[in-house]
């Protein structure tokens, strides 16, 4: 199972301030532990929301709002994508995330949908896929 570990933003991450060297070193060590364990799929930090935008959808209308966004505690500062056997294993990995300054923060854990989640029910009738336009033309040519 894949899990996204979502690091919530705070005033420091939204200011664009780089972490202290001790935190950077601790995070590097943590990331290396994830790599050695074979669970890390991706890990990225995000730039502050001031450098981003939101697109709001209302039917066919699109409205773009430039950052920054005021609700810091609802923003994402970064993430890890890991492969774990269970939510409990993912929680154990999150508990090991360094917090050398003892800061108050949170990491949200969310399971990622997998292809199997979209598979038909075992008792369902097999569905024949509709031919795509490219396939239909190829079928007529033969």
Record the SSE blueprint.
Layout: E1 2-8, H1 11-15, H2 21-37, E2 40-45, E3 53-58, E4 61-66, E5 76-83, H3 87-95, E6 107-111, H4 133-141
Antiparallel strand pairs: 1-5, 1-6, 2-5, 3-4
Proportion in β-strands = 25-35%
Q: Mean pLDDT, rounded to whole units?
A: 86
CATH architecture of the domain at 2-49 and 75-115: 2-Layer Sandwich
- End-to-end gap: 42 Å
- The structure class reads alpha+beta
The biggest beta sheet reads: 4 strands, antiparallel
Tally of individual helices:
4
Poorly predicted runs are: 134-142
Number of strands: 6
Helical content band: 25-40%
Bulk shape: flat
CATH topology-level name of the domain at 2-49 and 75-115: Alpha-Beta Plaits
Q: What is the CATH first-level class name of the domain at 2-49 and 75-115? A: Alpha Beta
Structure explained in plain terms:
The chain has helices at about 10-15, 20-35, 85-95, 135-140; strands spanning about 1-10, 40-45, 55-60, 60-65, 75-85, 105-110. Residues about 135-140 have low confidence and may be disordered. The chain has a four-stranded antiparallel sheet with strand order 2-5-1-6, with helices on one face. A two-stranded antiparallel sheet has the order 3-4. The protein has a domain at about 1-50 and about 75-115: 2-Layer Sandwich (Alpha-Beta Plaits), CATH 3.30.70. By secondary structure, it is α+β, with helices and mostly antiparallel strands. It contains four helices and six strands, in the order βααββββαβα. The longest helix is centred in the first third of the chain and has 17 residues, at about 20-35. Helix content is about 30%, strand content about 25%.
